[in-house]
Amino acid sequence: MTNIVPDTTLVPDTTRHITLAGSRHAGWWLAHGAIVLAIVTSAAFGVLSLVAAAAFLNIVGVRTAQVDASAQVFAAYTGARELALALTLLVLWVLRAPRGLAAVMPFAALANGFDAGHALLAQRWFQLPGALLFAIVYLAAALWLFKHYPLVESRKR
Length: 157
Fold this sequence. Notes:
Helix content: 55-70%
Number of helices: 5
Strand content: under 5%
Order of helices and strands: HHHHH
Number of domains: 1
Number of strands: 0
Radius of gyration: 23 Å
């Protein structure tokens, strides 16, 4: 009598079924959450500073009834910086370019770190925690991306 072995190639393997959410580690979700946060906040602050300069200046601690020319230039510069950052991150995120994101997220962290430093020097205590928190979160995301998607491949000998 011959031993008949059933053909299992046609039977789906349900033990290896992994959902999209289950296939990602917590670090991946946190890093990409930080990237989305950077895109949304940079875009919101960029648009706000270009469209409603007085409201933006009020948020960053410059309380003034009238927006003079120098304040308008500051708001326009900040808006351009934030929109450029948001657009760059959005394009890299849509293209699923983790190495590009790893290269740009430190810029977002550094910009917010400088904002935190300036808030500290100007004694804008209400602005300091937000800028510092954004800088830390963006830096953590950048470090996670660098760890998992190094910019330069190491040579194995």
